[in-house]
Amino acid sequence: MKNVKVYSTPTCSFCIRAKQFLTDNNVEFESIDISTDPERAKEIVEKSGQMGVPVLDIEGEIIVGFDKDKITSALGI
Asked: What percent of the chain is helix, strand and coil (3-state, nearest 5)?
C-alpha cells in the first residue's frame, strides 16, 4: 500500500470529501489537521506552493484539491 498523507482542516468540505473517497476505496492515510499544527501547515506550503487544502501527498506526488482522477491515477486504483 502507498504512503498517503492528507493535509486538511476540519471545516473544509473538499477535505472531508477527499478523506471519504480514500476511505470508500480502502486506502489507509494519515490525516494531518493543519489548523492545529503550524509546523505541518508550513511543511505543506513548502511541498505544494499552495496555502489551500486539501493537499494529498501520495508517495511524494503532491495533489492540491480533491481531484478524483489525479488521486485515482496516483494510487493506481
From this structure: 40, 20, 40
What are the angstrom distances between the C-alpha of 17 and each of 13, 38, 39, 43, 65?
Answer: 6, 23, 24, 22, 10
**Domain range holding 50?**
4-75
pTM (two decimals):
0.93
CATH number at residue 43: 3.40.30.10
Count up the domains in the chain and report the number: 1
Interval 39-50: pLDDT, tens: 999 999 998 998
Give me the residues of the chain with pLDDT under 70, please: none
